[in-house]
Amino acid sequence: MSACFYDNGGVMAGIDAHTYITVGPAYAPVPVLFTPHGVAAPFLHPPATYWKRTGTVLAEGRQMIQRGFKLYLVPHIPLTGLPPHVTEAVELAKIIAKSSSESYLGVASVSGEGESLAVCVSSCVGVNGNCGPGLGVVLNPSSVITSPTAADYVGAVASWSVGLALGPVWKMIPNPVLRFIIEKAVGPQIDKLVRFAVSSVL
What we know:
This protein is α+β, with helices and mostly antiparallel strands. It has 2 domains: 3-147, no CATH class; 149-202. It is 29% helix and 37% strand. The protein has a 7-stranded antiparallel sheet, with helices on one face. A two-stranded antiparallel ribbon has the order 1-13. The chain is globular and about 60 Å long. The two termini are 17 Å apart.
């Protein structure tokens, strides 16, 4: 099926599940797990892996997006009628500070500046893996299209699943600086192994 490539004109919106702090008896803080939060951000959102925007490869005059592009500091809005506790402001700030939205689907046969380019699932509609966990729907109309293979689709699902499973593992590392270094060094290598295994089978 035909699918548009991601570029800087894309917009992500979706729902993530996070903890929400509401008011309990005697105004005690009560955490409500897996509360839905609305999220949204354009691909031009400044806090992002800007180096995964192609500098010279353009689509309709816009920078194209490499697979693995991440948005950070994504705005979140709790979708609940429960009254917020005063500590909810701190909880929401922590959620946004750690938030992300990542593109997993790319076309292995089409690269831009040495990396596979991110692509929609079908037509101009894509899916990102968000924090929480959650999923973000991407709208990215473009005249530049391609046809992802079965290996591209399966590889994206496998990569997202492994990334989701590794999330708790990274959090077990107490030092945040060491955790960041290990995650950024080891994570991409695991992702490459997963995709290689998928492409070898399909």
